[in-house]
Amino acid sequence: MEVQEILAKVKNGSLSMEEAERLLKRQPFEDLGYAKLDTHRKIRSGFAEVIFCSGKADDHLIRIVGKLYEEEGEVFGTRASKKQYEMLRKIYPELQYDKISRIIKIEKKGKVKAGKIAVCTAGTADIAVAEEAAQTAEYFGSNVERIYDVGVSGLHRLLSRLDQIQSANCVIAIAGMEGALASVIGGLVDKPVIAVPTSVGYGANMHGLSALLTMINSCANGIAVVNIDNGYGAGYMATQINRLGVKHE
């Protein structure tokens, strides 16, 4: 139960002061033995804990999903396999899975989304990372405009969508190969650009290292770079920026 919900129930008389005090005094994490779930993270940061599914034991993942769902009324996980999804769906039929981004989620209905984030990719091979970013931002309450396959090898494609890109509170630029898209966008907008290098490319791409180095060494201003293929990190940071933009509208 969220703090606002507890306070509202105290105000309307459906929850006693003693029970509210007991709920608020709970330790700020749930100790499962093998995991310590940060159940107060949303209170501190505005974002509930997210599950990184890859590599987790089945029993551990089941309990972690269950506990976070119980606490928040929704749950979000990244890098989930189809096998993990099918296992969890037997327990939570409402669980959704996107095989492109590998995201699993149970989401509250009727969420209000605000502001705007533009998620741009250089090519279609970058869409898996882009969807991880876009769906993360949407889950946390941002409107997202997807602008895919606008890489610098055909600059007219990017320029044809410039109005939509420039109207966003934040832009996520996702590219593999040489990673030039972020620099180009950075020179065209007055909002922060989050660059995401992807591991898409031929041998000298070095699994995304060439794109990472290009983005870090960008001559354009206002660009921040996250790790290779880290769509989740980009979506999270873009949402923080978007929330600031919404507050100042």
Describe this structure in words.
By secondary structure, this protein is α/β, with parallel strands linked by helices. It contains 11 helices and 11 strands. It has helices at residues 3-12, 17-25, 41-45, 58-72, 82-89, 127-139, 155-159, 162-166, 181-186, 209-216, 231-247, and strands spanning 30-31, 36-37, 51-52, 75-78, 96-98, 103-106, 114-121, 142-147, 170-175, 193-197, 223-225. It has a 5-stranded parallel sheet. It is globular and about 60 Å long. The two termini are 30 Å apart. The model has no long low-confidence stretch (mean pLDDT 90). InterPro entries: P2CMN_synthase_LarB, PurE_dom. It holds the Pfam family AIRC. GO terms for molecular function: hydrolase activity. It comes from Candidatus Anaerostipes excrementavium. Residues 115-247 form the PurE domain.
* Oligomeric organization of the protein chains: single chain
What value does the average pLDDT take?
90
Q: Widest sheet: strand order?
A: 8-7-9-10-11
Q: How would you sum up the major sheet?
A: 5 strands, parallel
- Strand tally is 11
The helix fraction, in percent, is 40-55%
Structural class: alpha/beta
What count of helical segments does DSSP give? 11
How much of the sequence lies in strands comes to 15-25%
Distance between the termini: 30 Å
Poorly predicted tracts of residues: none
Form type? globular
Helix-strand sequence:
HHEEHEHEHEEEHEHHEHEHEH
Rg from C-alpha positions? 20 Å
InterPro entries: P2CMN_synthase_LarB, PurE_dom
GO biological process, one term: 'de novo' IMP biosynthetic process
Domain PurE: 115-247
Protein name: Nickel pincer cofactor biosynthesis protein LarB
